[in-house]
Amino acid sequence: MLRVVCLIIVSAALAGFSVGAHAADDWRQGDTSVERCAAEFNAIDNSVRTAGVQDAEYARIDGFPYFRIDRFLASYDFSKFKPAERTEWVDQLVANDQEARTIEIGNLPATERGELYARLGRDPLKVLSDCAETMRKYDHEHPQAHKALAQQAKVPVSDPVPQRPTDWTPQELTAMVSPEPVKDTGPLVTAFEPVATAPILASAAKVLVERSRTDALGIPLPDDDVADRLIAGFAPVWLVKGRPDDGLVIPAWDKGKAEGEEYQAAVYSRLSHVKWNGKVLLQISYFAWFNDDPLDGVIWRVTIGPDGRPVLYDTVRTDGSDYLVIIPGDKLKTAGRSVHIGDVPEGERVAVTVDQATRKVTHVGFWGGVTRGAYVLTEYDRLRRLYDHAGETRSLFGPSGAMTPDKAGSPRQWGHERLPDGRYFDAPDLYDGVKPAS
Q1: Would you list the DSSP string of 28-52?
Q2: Shortest CA distance to 396 belongs to which of 375, 416, 376?
Q3: Model pLDDT for residues 382-430, shown as the tens digit of each residue
Q4: What does the alpha-carbon distance between residue 191 and residue 352 come to, in Å, rounded to a whole number?
Q5: Where does 141-257 have alpha helices with state H?
Q6: In whole angstroms, what is the distance from residue 35 CA to residue 263 CA?
Q7: Spatial strand order in the sheet of 360-366
Q8: 294 preceded by a cis bond (ω within 30 of 0)
Q9: Alpha-helical runs (H) found in 153-223
Q10: What is the pTM of this model?
Q11: Of 210, 265, 201, which is closest to residue 232 (Cα–Cα)?
């Protein structure tokens, strides 16, 4: 009897958040367990939307509240999957949603989070795990769900093309590389290397990446320990022209404004994937932040080839401007803006020089000097939950994916860095134009 009463109370509490079935999910009508889960997901979404703490890193899929997708996963044709491939792909969609919703719920103000708990009658995080399993099992048995998912699993093009012009001159591009090792050349340039790490050998990187590939789709998904080793092994030396305290800052909220804290130099990192020459390659992106109004950043990315060596590098501002491809050696070419550097010797790091005043990469090579500074490596996801002065947490980025939506040149969240030519930095086919040089 108590269980019936509790269900009535919870149903009443959720009544204001239930939604009628529509074309995307009408196959679920009549099943009380999935209808309850849909109402609970909707209650969570309403709280998150009202508080303005939506996380924009992954795209939602209409009709599937327990899935979120990115451009890499959207590049697969779900309708052609074998069963094992479908399972792996769906696993990633569920994991993306669990990650994003955990961040959103954590960023709710304490009062709203408590109200949501009371409205649901249980821990919202428990809802995420239980209802994802319930709805996934139910949808798996319904062909309508498979058809709808294949149609809806897309990432919208919703971000503006950056307005800041890319203004490297031919002379600047020529001067960007040199055959000699890069060295710290004077008092106006400070070299920062990653703390307590060593470069990784290509043979070790190859083994780590290949062992991390999934069985069905062959996607490299390193566990935390392997990811940390790869991130540390490929991390560059950063050379900052200008005031060293204004470079490699830690983003933080102060009285409603995003600013950089200078007590410790830090660089943020995350993994991603690209499809190239019929294989999925692992990428590591490094985010360096600089004090400005607004806060600004530069991304340096390494794409690891099948042999464990970087097949190419690329860099972009966090608003999508100043995109540049850096090709090691002379075996590849691209029609886009690019420069060539020599192959980085085994056991050496790439050195990336950034002008602190303009936030432009001005030189790239391999490091042969002595550093005077050090930086810590930390997870990009920390930017999605920063503490503010009131002790609450909030993302560096707003619901649209922009840090400051109404300001041109504002940094954008991962998945929203649109390039001047209209493509996206995280596009899985971004390197289709990179071809053999001969």
Answers
A1: GTT-HHHHHHHHHHHHHHHHHHHHT
A2: 416
A3: 999 999 878 899 999 999 999 988 788 899 999 999 999 999 999 999 9
A4: 9
A5: 143-152, 170-175, 202-211, 224-234
A6: 50
A7: 338-341, 324-328, 310-317, 296-304, 279-290, 266-276, 373-379, 189-194, 237-241, 350-355, 360-366
A8: yes
A9: 170-175, 202-211
A10: 0.93
A11: 201
